[in-house]
Amino acid sequence: MKFPNMVLSACAVAIAVAGCAGTQETVNYPAQPVTVVIPYPAGNAADVVGRIVAEKLGQLWGQPVTVENRGGPTTVPGVDSVAKAKADGHTLLIHSISYAVDAGLYSNLPYDPEKSFAPVAPIARQPFVLVTSPALGVSSVAELVGKAKGGSMKYASLGTTTQVYFVAEQFRRQAKFDATNVSVKSLVEANGMLAKGDAAFWFPPVAGAMGGIKDGKLIPLAVTADRRVAMLPQVPTMAEAGVPKMESYAWFGVWAPAGTSAAVVDRVAQDVERALAAPEVREKLAKLGAEPMSMTPAKFGRFVSSEIEASKRLTAGLGIKPQAYSHPAKQ
Predict the structure, then answer these.
(1) pTM for the complete prediction?
(2) Are 253 and 99 in contact (CB under 8 A)?
(3) Phi, psi values for residue 251, rounded to 5°
(4) CA nearest neighbour of 201 among 224, 171, 227, 233
């Protein structure tokens, strides 16, 4: 989804140690080991980004920080477990744009995305890249659209409840061509489909496509960023390629259970800022094509609310009606 450029500035880096995130009240935190819940399987982009930050927070705090992957068919159960955790800051959630997407997809989540959590801080964002199969023989977005309008075409996604699906559908509808979605379970599987010619295109996060691009198994056509990205400087933006209003990013952030004191929220936010200012953290994120982001807890809360509303507008625009959520154990 489109949002203002709020990447970590030099000024923010300089004042992070002084505590730019809010109140300066002294707080004894963390007083015990911290659990970070990531509602995805190990190896997912949110997991990789989250572990980079969690590791640095453990170093800053001098306390163990344990990452627990609570992934499943959806991220909802993992998120809900944090909503119901003790509100003392020793259980945190690291999630992605799907926090907002789920709010637009489900009509009866077991938690309230606007009230069940205290927004703490954003971590980073990374754009998606439109890649195509070498077997298709195209080298531009215009050529892809031309071929798509000339016959049937398949595209890969990670399921109809994911942002990569929404981006592909937005592209398909805006460019006015028909194509069939093929949902798979993993990024590796989706990339493999394109490499074998079993699907024509898809929109993985930039980092998830780099291996295939370097090996010549994926052809990059455009990125969903507001400007070209350093990892693919020769690849145009979607707007440059003739498809405007396609800016979209996978973003990641930190939340605490609602009721966590402002002092603890501010302390965690300050230390996330400090972690993101560390050169080794910035280097690791850069290799993933991810830009650190900087917002106060209040600003992050407003950002998340705006992303939830954007998700609702997007799903409505795609003709997707909110569905009833059913807990896996009850299905």
Answers:
(1) 0.83
(2) yes
(3) -125, 160
(4) 171
